[in-house]
Amino acid sequence: MLPYRDFAYLQTPLQPFVLAPIAVLTGAWTWPALRLTNALLGLASVAFVHAAARRTGAGPTTARLCAALFATTDILLFSIGTARNDALPAACLAAALWLIVREDRTRAGALTIGLLLAAAVAAKISYALPAAAYGLYALVHPRHRVWLVALGAVPIVAFVGWTFAVSPEASCSARCIFPPRRPQNITRHGPGSCRLPPRRSIR
After folding, report:
1. In this structure, is the dihedral angle defined by the CA atoms of residues 150, 151, 156 and 159, taken in order, positive or negative?
2. Which of 25-29, 128-132, 190-194 has the lowest mean pLDDT?
3. Contact 3/49 with Cβ under 8 angstroms?
4. Cβ atoms 100, 49 nearer than 8 A
5. pLDDT tens per residue across span 131-183
6. Are 40 and 48 in contact (CB under 8 A)?
7. Short-list 84, 85, 101, CA closest to 48
8. Separation CA 118–CA 47 (nearest Å)
9. Burial of residue 199 (number of CB atoms within 10 Å: 0-12, 13-18, 19+)
10. What's the pLDDT score for residue 6?
11. CA–CA separation, 120 vs 186, rounded Å?
12. With contact defined as beta carbons under 8 Å apart, do 5 and 167 qualify?
């Protein structure tokens, strides 16, 4: 099954593909397995924040404090306690941050940053904002090798493009048309009106 074509999915498509093997392997235990996966991704995010702080010169106590403050934010605690598409992009962004603050720039590092930032966006569209911000920053700071960063993003961009090409109408409806109309429909017609039309949600 593919998102958009076979079932409604209101975000960019990476997470269903990444977590599908876990769902297949765990069967009836899919829900707790996905929650555990998200918890581990959240732990990875905290670890990368700590490592990034240390890499920028923060002392052990300051780095632990930064990681602890991040770990106790409401949105992180909520995200890692359920099976949503928040923990995966957060881990990708945190890993990219750890590479971004590295002093010695390498081609592999720049390519990996691009791959990780694109993966974050491909898991949750709101991560396009920090990705774009870093892209603009890299444009005016040559040592960040912006063209290699862009090249690293190409495989993920191609993957997202493929999911759109498989079912363009359903993909556009799920990601572009339905979300902005949902609050207005709920206000006017009640919660039941926020459902996607069957023809557009399942193909």
Report:
1. positive
2. 190-194
3. no
4. no
5. 999 999 999 998 899 999 999 999 999 999 998 888 777 666 655 555 555 55
6. no
7. 101
8. 21
9. exposed
10. 77
11. 29
12. yes
Q: In this structure, which long-range contacts are made by residues 116-121, counting pairs with CB atoms below 8 Å and at least 24 apart in sequence?
A: 116/92, 117/92, 117/93, 117/149, 117/153, 118/152, 118/153, 118/155, 118/156, 118/157, 119/14, 119/88, 119/89, 119/92, 119/156, 120/88, 120/89, 120/90, 120/92, 120/93, 120/96, 121/12, 121/89, 121/156
Q: Identity (one letter) of the amino acid at 3?
A: P
**Structural tokens at position 84:** 């949503």
First vs last C-alpha separation in the chain:
10
User: Within 13 Å and on the Cβ side, how many CA atoms surround 86?
Assistant: 15
Please write down the HEC assignment for all residues of the chain. Answer: CCECCCECCCCCCHHHHHHHHHHHHHHHHHHHHHHHHHHHHHHHHHHHHHHHHHHCCCCHHHHHHHHHHHHCCHHHHHHCCCCCCCHHHHHHHHHHHHHHCCCCCCHHHHHHHHHHHHHHHHHCHHHHHHHHHHHHHHHCCHHHCHHHHHHHHHHHHHHHHHHHHHCHHHHHHHHHHHHHHHHHHHHHHCHHHHCCCHHHHCC
Measured CA to CA, the distance from residue 93 to residue 200 in angstroms comes to 32
Q: What angle do CA 45, 48, 52 make, to 5 degrees?
A: 140
